[in-house]
Amino acid sequence: MSRTLKDTWTMTKRSLRHIVRSPDTIITVVLMPIAMMLLFVYVFGGAIGQTTDSVNYVDFITPGIIIMAVVSGIAYAAVRLSVDVHKGIVSRFRTMPVAPSSILAGQVASSTLSNLVSSLLVLAVAFVVGFRSDAGPGEWLIFAVLLVLFTLATTWLAIFFGLLAKTVEGAGAFSYILLLLIFISPAFVPTDSMTPILRRFADNQPMTPVIETMRSLLTSGTAGGSVWTAVAWCVGILVVMYLASLWIYKHKAISVSG
Amino acid sequence: MENAITVNGLEKTYDKNAVLRGVSFDVEAGSIFALLGSNGAGKTTTINILTTLIEADAGRATINGFDVATQQDKVRQQISLTGQFAAVDDILTARENLELIADLRHVPNSAKTAQDLLERFGLIDAADRRVTTFSGGMRRRLDIAMSLIGTPAIIFFDEPSIGLDPEARNGMWETIRTLANTGTTIFLTTQYLEEADQLADKIAILHGGTIVATGTARELKQLVPSGVVELTFHDETERAAATRVLEPCYQVATSDGMKLTVATSNRIEQLAQLFTHLRDARIEPVDFYQRSPTLDDVFLKITSREPGEH
């Protein structure tokens, strides 16, 4: 057990060095959601804001913007892993007596840490443009736990696609689907304004309970009715993607053919 | 002598393309073994199976007695792999790359291990530079240094000299010889007869998915003509005439319409005889040169052999 933990820490250190040494990716990950936030608050906010009733529009969209930052962050985790696959570094690790879970969990741990940092940065900018919350420490704690759970689940999804990707360029493409899911959710507009079919989809996809629970925690001080649905989605995706990724790592010929 | 590697009837098919059709060989502990074959012969597939990267469809292989299919962890403790492309981390420095592998192999003092290897492989001046700034030769040296960490009993080299200039290649050969002298078993793949000749105690030729010949370099060379003369003629008619004259006495092959490859020893007597044949038939080649046999010639000889003939 201690060996596995030590190896995971070794791999996490390596991956964190990668993140810290490519500042351009950090900037992209944080800047894009912040630009979206400013766009929504100052350009669309005036019009859309009237539909969010009593909730201030900045407060309404902040959870969605944070989720967006996480989704663009995990895309880089997939790209980093894909680079390792295509440069033969994963093959090197696979021929060494190191547990597969350590190799992959190192990527997951560093991705989770860096995504928490970018979430904090987004939150800081949100405060600057007027975000306020009455949530107490308990609500913030639940908020943080759900955010970590969501990040873990989507990072394992990224690991899965990173291992499978035929090219490094294609490794992050799955994140566009996640971004689309954010737009077809109550992240920026209430779902009652959507067409019936879209609304039905929006109300039953995984992003919705996560975003609604986060918003409820920050704006009304309770977790709301979606919290267990949100947790169930995250845990489900986490378990399935963890198992699928490990299976691929162990069995699929992910070595570069020659 | 004990066998470090035993391979028995390995088969592997990719998308209906049978790459390995029953490959068998043994490698003695402490020896240098070369798997010789052309591009696409299945050398990398064989190495990938032996290093637990892919699973064979059929057959069995053991590394120091451990089965590569069922005892992967034990196998991985015995081996290390240096692939065709230096598998080094570009974003880390050379020292960090070495320390990473040392940590993962649980070497007692990873910092000292890294320092020693940096000195041994002449990378000390570049130790704290990111690998992305390294030349191809430096990357290769770092790659090998990483493979030596934890002193694995068997080291696999997949085409170790590919893409290296002659000086770097000689350095690579020296490294491999030094390793073998310390008792490490070396398994390498190559497409160059010369490389196998220079390094290997035993050579196996992989062709068409099976081992078509095994032996020491000396034994294999006896299968191959010691020299080859390439003749170019004015036109195809001349070439056909030359083929008719030479065929009864020599092994000849036509690579294109006007060229003829004739197997002969490189002794002056034999060469004179060859040209006498041509002169007597009044055939004048427009160009000719004598060269050493290549792997192609070995293949030509071995694969043109009648079934059952040895």
Question: What is the N-to-C succession of helices and strands of chain B?
Answer: EEEHEEHEHHHEHEHEEHEHEEHEH
So what's the overall shape of chain A? elongated
> H/E order of the elements of chain A?
HHHHHHHHHH
Q: How many angstroms separate the termini of chain B?
A: 26 Å
Q: How would you sum up the major sheet of chain A?
A: none
Which band does the percent of strand residues of chain B land in?
A: 25-35%
Low-confidence stretches of chain A: none
Biggest contact: A-B, 27 and 34 residues
Low-confidence stretches of chain B: 306-310
Q: Helix/strand/pairing class of chain B, anyone? A: alpha/beta
Note the overall shape of chain B. Answer: elongated
What portion of residues of chain A is helical? over 70%
- Structure class of chain A: mainly alpha
Number of helices of chain A: 10
Oligomer: heterodimer
Q: What is the element layout, followed by pairings?
A:
The complex is a heterodimer of chains A (258) and B (310).
Chain A: H1 2-20, H2 23-48, H3 57-86, H4 89-94, H5 100-128, H6 137-164, H7 174-183, H8 196-203, H9 207-219, H10 227-251
Helix pairs in contact in A: 1-5, 2-3, 2-5, 3-5, 3-6, 3-7, 3-9, 5-6, 6-9, 6-10, 9-10
Chain B: E1 3-14, E2 17-28, E3 32-36, H1 43-50, E4 58-63, E5 66-67, H2 72-78, E6 79-82, H3 94-104, H4 110-120, H5 136-148, E7 154-158, H6 166-181, E8 185-190, H7 193-199, E9 202-207, E10 210-215, H8 217-221, E11 227-232, H9 236-246, E12 251-253, E13 259-264, H10 268-280, E14 287-291, H11 295-303
Parallel strand pairs in B: 3-8, 3-9, 6-7, 7-8
Antiparallel strand pairs in B: 1-2, 1-4, 4-5, 9-10, 11-13, 11-14, 12-13
Helix pairs in contact in B: 3-4
